[in-house]
Design goal:
alpha/beta, 2 domains, 4-stranded antiparallel beta sheet, 7 helices
C-alpha cells in the first residue's frame, strides 16, 4: 500500500500516527488540523518539516471531492473534532477511537474510562462514516487501567500503543477492510458536563483524587473559599478532624491545603503543575 495518497485529519494527542504513514511510504496530500494552537503544535511542525499542505478550515464536501480528484485514496482521522464529508468514491476512510467499540462512542471517553468504565479501555481502528464512531471495526486491542491511572497516563498509553496497531493494519489494509466487523448496539457516552468535572467537597478524599486523576491536565473545577478554581494535581492525607469540608487550612506561596470530610488535599500553586488559577 506504499505510495498511496492520503489526507490526514487530527490533533496532537495521536500525532504519533503521522510517522507510521511516513515510514510506510504513504504520500500526504493534505493535513487538516482544525486550528493553530497548543493542541496542534506537533501536527503543524510535522507538516512544515515535510512540506505538506496544512488546512485549518472545517472540511467541506467540495474540498473532499477535490482530494479524490488529486488521487487521494485514504482519509485517516485521529482526534479530529469535526465531521468529515466522505465522498462515495473514496476507497478507504479510517478513524481511531480510544475505547473498545461499540462501547464508549462519544467525544470525551477517557474521563469516563477512569471514573467507571475501565473494562472498555482500548484502541479501535474503524471505518470512518457519516455517523460518529459507528463504522465497521477493522482492528482493536484492549488497554489495562491501573489502580492509579490518570487522564495523562492513559493518554500516554494510547499514544504509545496506537502506532503499533496502525502499522499492523497497514500491513494488510485491504484484508482488514474485507474482514471488518459491524458494530453491535454498544453505548454512547455523552460529553462530560462541568458538574462532572467539579470537585464536591462532600465526597471522600479517595473520590476527590479519582476525579482529579480522571481529568488530569485538562483540569478539574473546584470552589475554594468562594472562588472558582481549576486544579490539575493534588496530594492527599486521610485523618479524622473537626474542620469543615472545603475549608482552607493553610496557604503559602507554594501550596494550598483544603480540608476534606476525611482528611485534606494539598494543592500545588501556579508553576507547580497544580492549582492553575482562581477567578
Amino acid at each position: 500500500m506504499g505510495n498511496m495518497k492520503i489526507a490526514y485529519f487530527g490533533y496532537d494527542p495521536l500525532s504519533c500516527c503521522l510517522e507510521v504513514f511516513l515510514k510506510k511510504g504513504y504520500q500526504f496530500a493534505a493535513i487538516y488540523c482544525g486550528e493553530s494552537g497548543p493542541f496542534t503544535e506537533k501536527i503543524i511542525a510535522f507538516a512544515t518539516k515535510h512540506q505538506i499542505k496544512l488546512c485549518f478550515d472545517k472540511p467541506t464536501p467540495k474540498q473532499m471531492r477535490d482530494l479524490i480528484t488529486q488521487g487521494v485514496e485514504l482519509f485517516f482521522s485521529a482526534e479530529y473534532p469535526w465531521k468529515i464529508p466522505i465522498p462515495s468514491e473514496l476507497k478507504y476512510a479510517i478513524n481511531v477511537h480510544p475505547t473498545l467499540l461499540p462501547e464508549g462512542r462519544g467525544m470525551t471517553p477517557l474521563p469516563h474510562l477512569i471514573l467507571n468504565q475501565s473494562k472498555h479501555a482500548g484502541i479501535t481502528l474503524h471505518k470512518l462514516t457519516q455517523s460518529f464512531d459507528s463504522g465497521d471495526i477493522l482492528i482493536q486491542q484492549g488497554i489495562a487501567i491501573d489502580p492509579e491511572e490518570s487522564f495523562d497516563t492513559l493518554s500516554a498509553k494510547i499514544f504509545q500503543q496506537t502506532p503499533k496497531l496502525l502499522a499492523t493494519l497497514l500491513e494488510d489494509l485491504q484484508g482488514f477492510y474485507l474482514s471488518s466487523q459491524k458494530q453491535g448496539e454498544g453505548s454512547y457516552w455523552p460529553a462530560i458536563t462541568q458538574a462532572q468535572q467539579t470537585l464536591d467537597w462532600q465526597q471522600h478524599t479517595a473520590q476527590l483524587l479519582l476525579r482529579l486523576r480522571a481529568f488530569g491536565s485538562l483540569g478539574t473545577y473546584a470552589n475554594i473559599d468562594g472562588k472558582a478554581c481549576v486544579i490539575t494535581s493534588a496530594q492527599a492525607k486521610q485523618y479524622q478532624h473537626n474542620y469543615r469540608a472545603g475549608e482552607v487550612l493553610e496557604e503559602n506561596q507554594d501550596y494550598l491545603t483544603i480540608a476534606t470530610i476525611d482528611g485534606e488535599l494539598c494543592i500545588p500553586k501556579t508553576g507547580k503543575a497544580g492549582l492553575l488559577f482562581c477567578v
